[in-house]
Amino acid sequence: RDSSASSSGRAIAAVFTASFYDWNMLSGQINFAGFRNYVDKLPHDARMADILRNTAFFVGGFMPATVVAGLGLAVLTNRKKPGMRVYRAIFFMPVVVSLAAWAVVWRMVFQPEGPLNGLLMVFGIAGPNWLANKQFALSAIIIVAVLKTVGFTMVLFHAALQNVPRDVVEAARIDGGSEWAIFRHITLPMIAPFTFLVVILTTINSFKTFALFYVMTQGGPGDATRTLSLYIYDMGFKFLQLGYAGTLSVLLFLIVLVLTLIQFVIRRRWVFSEL
């Protein structure tokens, strides 16, 4: 663990250091740039507005959908009925599938002649080329990302539901409480710490998502699906501008840090218990 932490620390320090250099591996030149990458390059990057908008759209769609769907599946499969373990296993299966293989399969599904458009044709609907359409491409990737990770979120929520005291729930039922009232006023407040954990983890993972974008669209069409993580890869490994890639990495780190701190501040309004 100490070795892993030390390696991570050195990697973070290297990224921060690189962000202060004009480091172009194509020419082999390394010049100290100070804050020029932050002051001159970053604010005047013509692509940055679209990339930040795409990143915000992905995070804003992926995070709540994954949390809500994971909680819903956990509640549905938490009942003492035959086959619940099988259902949980089915929903969890995408989590253990290779991310690259998952992306390739779904890229085929969203092709113009793929299964999805074939299904729509049954109902007389002509489906578009989903991943080549600026209007639908990013939404399609959000759906694929949610389906890939919702099983893990379900398992976390299932563990949380197991910690809700049964006697409290049964007492509420005896007092005439409906299932919705019990869920809203007892279950949700009691699993609030777990919900907070899931929201934090999902938010961080959404900013780290890279392989789905790279395999399915490579940021296209145009920059319609290019997020900050993919743009960092482009700058560092396609255009070999390691200095600017470091600057973008620092920007990503600061965005995640600020959002995490905000979530820690506002958690006091909705986390009412610590299990």
Return the structural class.
mainly alpha
Q: Please state how the strands of the largest beta sheet are arranged side by side.
A: 1-2
Strand content: under 5%
Helix proportion range: 55-70%
Mean pLDDT, to the nearest integer, reads: 89
CA-atom Rg in angstroms: 22 Å
DSSP strand count: 2
What can be said about the biggest beta sheet?
Answer: 2 strands, antiparallel
Counted by DSSP, the helix tally is 13
Query: What is the string of helix and strand elements?
Result: HEEHHHHHHHHHHHH
| Poorly predicted sequence stretches spanning 5 or more consecutive residues | none
Distance between the termini: 27 Å
Per the principal axes of the C-alpha atoms, what is the gross shape? globular
Give a verbal description of the structure:
- This protein has 13 helices and 2 strands, in the order αββαααααααααααα.
- It has helices at 2-18, 36-41, 48-76, 84-96, 99-109, 115-122, 137-162, 166-174, 179-190, 192-208, 211-216, 228-238, 242-266; strands spanning 21-24, 29-32.
- The protein has a two-stranded antiparallel sheet with strand order 1-2.
- A hairpin with a 4-residue loop joins strand 1 (21-24) and strand 2 (29-32).
- The radius of gyration is 22 Å and the shape is globular.
